[in-house]
Amino acid sequence: MRLGVVALKIALLSVGFGIIYTLSNYAETTRPKLPAGFEDSDLALQGKRLKGYALGAEGLMADWYWILSLQYIGGKIMSSEDVILNVEDLTSLNPRLLYPYLDNATDLDPKFYAAYSYGAIVLPAIDPAKAIALTEKGIANNPDHWRFYQYLGYIYWRLKEFEKAAEIYEKGSRVPGAPPFMRQMAATMKTKGGSRDTARELYLQMLTESDDQQSKENAQLRLFELDSLDERDAVNAILQSFKEKAGRCANSYGEILPQLRTIKLPAGKGFRIDASNNIVDPTGVPYTLDRTRCSIYIGPESRIPKTP
User: Measured between alpha carbons, how far is residue 217 from residues 63, 120, 151, 212, 220 in Å?
Assistant: First the structure.
């Protein structure tokens, strides 16, 4: 009897999704051409409206919206015509469906931690208000999960609202099980919220503590970016010093290597030099030396986020 009920539920779901798929395809082929800037159609199916009527398949539907959100942003980036994609501002991609995808996923599964964390990392570069709304939703649905306070504090830190970020980290530090890091960040936000050291501490914590792989990968790239900024600052200072003394820019890295070997980067790190005496970034790609400007910049093959 129980197997028969399960089979009936599966059959009904299959028929329902089949009808939705057919109608979606029909709407796609018959809809009028949209003006430029509106190439994304609104969601044909608001899955969250089926909550309580999905015959126990809410988790499966939440996963579906989650996968769509990942594919959606990936497709936007791959099809972008921007030579340099500003990772701090993704509005040029017009990703207006990302929030609805994540909102549906977290309505269907209010404890979908990965969806909340992904939204907290990506949405601030698209719509900070929606990033805050999604993360506050995570806190409301999971009040005993301190990490959502970490995400919300991170968003306010990105907005340079350091006092508000400090307040959020302080609230999160009072959640049972919250690590000392939360209280430390509350104090740090008030004293040096805008420093590169603070950013490094935030992303290092995300790398070691995040629940999902997407957030970890983003945190690692951000740490690479911070290391690269330190490296470029040091190299560019030496290049300018060389230019002032020699009356010209260095022809190659070989001319400044002796000075570079005396520089200690943050956390005791040093420069990476390849077999051809090129200075390479944290991902192993050589920096490009621009002798006209007498400075270096990230090579085109590097995975480090590039900002104009």
Answer: 20, 14, 16, 9, 5
- The runs of H, that is alpha helices, within 142-212 are 147-158, 162-173, 180-192, 196-209
Residues 17, 140: Cα–Cα separation, whole Å: 31
Q: What token pair was written down for 180?
A: 């000392």
Q: What is the H or E stretch that residue 288 is in? A: strand 288-290
**Number of C-beta neighbours around residue 152 at 10 A:** 26
Token pair, residue 121, equals 């990392």
- DSSP-derived 3-state class of residue 289: strand
Helix 147-158 with 128-141: angle, nearest 10 deg: 160
pLDDT in tens, 52-102: 655 567 888 889 888 999 898 888 878 876 655 666 778 888 888 999 999
**d(Cα 296, Cα 182) in Å, to the nearest integer?**
36
Q: Is the dihedral of CA 186, 187, 191, 194 positive or negative?
A: negative
Cα–Cα distances (Å) from 180 to 166, 183, 186, 287, in that order, read: 14, 6, 10, 38
> If you compute the radius of gyration of the chain from its CA atoms, what whole number of angstroms results?
24
